[in-house]
Design brief:
Elements (H helix, E strand, L loop, with lengths): L3 E2 L2 H17 L6 E7 L3 H16 L3 E7 L5 H13 L5 E4 L9 H7 L11 H8 L8 H12 L8 E5 L6 H10 L3 E5 L6 H6 L3 E4 L17 E4 L3 E2 L5 E2 L4 H4 L5 E2 L7 H20 L30
Parallel strand pairs: 1-11, 2-3, 2-4, 5-6, 5-7, 7-8, 8-11
Antiparallel strand pairs: 9-10
The structure holds NADPH dihydro-nicotinamide-adenine-dinucleotide phosphate (NDP).
NADPH dihydro-nicotinamide-adenine-dinucleotide phosphate binds next to α10.
Length: 309
């Protein structure tokens, strides 16, 4: 058996097209403001990619570039002005911030209704309570991939490898909300291979190249590799030994071309959702739209289906 490859590039492209179509039908252009403090090379590339994708989808996107020595007060003032700006629907502060700025203070300053990264404590709490509002983009992208791949989530045993606030924890909350029997594994987990071998769905979000080897994989499992690691020869690789997993897994995402493209697509999706909610436009409802209770989430992420989402 050879695993089906889940083509994140194609799935993300379809989602972006759907989003663009919806934006084109709106009586307004949703506004997205991305703040970049300093000149971290990777962040600069990420921000440029987000800006390009947002503009291509028809969003009114702008990037605010601030010098690395920007004071916390000045950054807070910038966020406040965006919070107050009726044309801005989404605000994203690119992380990491320079060390003299407390990230949690900055995240808390963003209006939760415009928090398209889904990192504000109000949005984190909503997700933990099973009533997600704006959900972090990478785990949201993983849910899209699972649905696009036709994975049975309800009742499945899911293992999330990694417990960061950006990926692992929200990922586990979404899987739980979609009725998976969910385990979170991390650096202190006893016998990681055993835990992983029990997984029908394995999400690897660790940041260690090729850590998940063939003997960690339950035959037929769906494997989503969130990891992005640069090898000594400069190529990118995931947390899963892709070649070794291929003959064992049922379906698997490649790196690159799996989760990565979904993250930006879900940022656009969140902006559309935030705009629809703020401006009260039905057309602005997005894939994650109006989720009243935990139960409804499972049906929420099949959103590559064009209408209604
Ligand atoms: P973090 O470093 O914040 O978290 C890594 C997690 O992995 C931690 O919970 C840590 O456990 C766990 N871990 C580390 N080493 C081991 C080990 N040897 N065994 C078991 N668990 C371990 O990383 P992120 O969550 O931010 O990112 C994870 C990966 O995903 C990275 O490669 C990152 O580049 C990638 N990523 C990809 C994105 C995309 O768009 N495709 C977006 C975001 C991230 P503990 O908590 O115990 O320390």
């Amino acid at each position: 058996m050879t695993a089906r490859i889940i083509d994140g590039k194609a799935i993300a492209a379809a989602l972006r097209e759907t989003i663009a179509t919806r934006i084109a039908a709106l009586p307004y252009r949703p506004g997205l403001a991305v703040i970049l403090v300093g000149e971290d090379a990777a962040s600069t590339v990420y921000v440029r990619n987000k800006d390009r994708a947002a503009k291509a989808a028809g969003l009114n996107a702008s990037t605010i570039r601030l010098p690395a020595e920007t004071s916390p007060a000045s950054l807070l003032a910038t966020i406040q002005s965006l919070n107050d700006d009726p044309d801005i629907d989404g605000i994203l502060v690119q992380l990491p911030l320079p060390p003299h700025i407390a990230t949690d203070v900055i995240i808390r300053a963003i209006d939760p209704a415009k928090d398209v990264d889904g990192f504000h404590p109000d949005n984190v709490a909503a997700l933990a309570l099973g009533a997600p509002s704006l959900v972090p983009c990478t785990p949201s992208g993983v849910m899209h991939l699972l649905h696009a791949a036709g994975t049975n989530i309800s009742g499945a045993r899911a293992v999330v490898l990694g417990r960061s606030n950006i990926v692992g924890r929200p990922m586990a909350a979404l899987l739980l909300a979609a009725d998976a029997t969910t385990t979170i594994a991390h650096s202190r987990t006893a016998n990681l291979p055993d835990e992983c071998r029990r997984a029908d769905i394995l999400i690897a979000a660790v940041g260690r190249a090729n850590m998940v080897t063939a003997d960690w994989i339950n035959p037929g499992a769906t494997i989503i590799d969130v990891g992005i690691n640069r090898t000594p020869d400069g190529t990118l690789t995931g947390d899963v030994d892709f070649a070794a997993a291929l003959p064992i897994a049922g379906a698997i995402t490649p790196v690159p071309g799996g989760v990565g493209p979904m993250t930006i697509a879900c940022l656009l999706d969140n902006t559309l959702l935030a705009a629809g909610r703020r401006r009260g436009s039905k057309a602005g409802g997005s894939s994650s739209g109006a989720i009243p209770a935990m139960k409804s989430i499972a049906g929420t992420f099949g959103s590559s289906a064009p209408e209604p989402r």
